[in-house]
Write the structure tokens for this entry.
Amino acid sequence: MRNNIKYWGLCLFIAVGLASCESEEDDLKDRTSDLGGYALLTDRSLSRFDTNEELNIDLITSEGVTAETVEILQDGEVVGTATVSGESASFNSSILGNFTFPDDDGIDEEEGTYPVRIRTTYSNGNVSEDPFTISVGKVLSLGNAADEYDNPNQITMDSLSSVSLAYEVYSFSAPIDDVSLMLKKNEDGTYMPSGVELSTDGGYVELSETNYEELNLMVNDTLHYKFTATSGEMTDVIESTIAITPKAFTTSNSVTLTDDALTNQLNLATGEISEEGNEEGEIRFLDPTGFEVINDVDISFVEVESEFFEEADVLTAWEAFEAGDPETSFTDLESGDTFVYKTTREVEDEDGNVETYNYYGVLQISNVTTVDGEVVSYDVEYAEGY
């Protein structure tokens, strides 16, 4: 039933569209028949650079009738006269205005429209007035509409070098002399040239090909970038930002390790507590008040300050691990003792392909419980990701 509704809806849409086209064509035929012709503005989309370009008009007339004069009107006033040449005419875009469009607060916007009417006087003495809207837009836009690519507005530090910045350039006929890219760090930074040459036809800029590393960006910084197009003394600018966000851990758990042989092993990947000798265990309780790596698991730890735990992410854990001296066992731990660790894990994607990744995590000891002066358990809170 649903498919039938879609089918009849499509048929109705097509029928309405055809009826609309037929109605418009009938209206134009009637005007041609009644008045002797009509004007069709073929160029209606301009960029901010197209302030002095010729716009074309097609003149459709009845047999034996010619267009003698063509005037361009705005708000009922004649602002210019088109040059007529047989079955066409043209006028210069400069008659439209200064390409500024005040908003309700009187602030000039860079994009807008010009409603115009084309008044044509024919050799038979009749006159037609045909309404059109001419749009004016920016030269530059971000992203790529052709492949529906939008520039990212946030990224993790380890993925920053792989970012592509797409830009599009549009001009009706004004020449584009140059397109450049500048970069800066954070709002209060100073823009610097990116060091790459850009096509005036639009395209992509690989951030890895720029000199962005000179900005010394870090997590929680914001990369500002600015494209500028020039045509003669005219410029068009478009700006955007990419926030550099922490790389969140993908899993987290809170468990309790004990000195009891039934609950003394932990698999960090699954969060499962198991008994002594379980082949799936990765670390186990180690007297007194410690833990050690087991089952030849490829994992090691570096001790860090306890304050590190709250703000840690994958990348800061990686940095701290690489800066330390990894070990596989620790004893005499206290509540608040904190570690970063590195391990390798196999990850299967949705297609069944398996790849090996380096995982980085953070682990903290808490709630150390003693009985008769001996530690019998402690809580382990941890998170990891890649």
In short: The first strand starts at residue 37 and ends at 41. The CA atoms of residues 121 and 127 lie 4 Å apart. The radius of gyration is 35 Å. Confidence is low (pLDDT under 50) at residues 1-22.
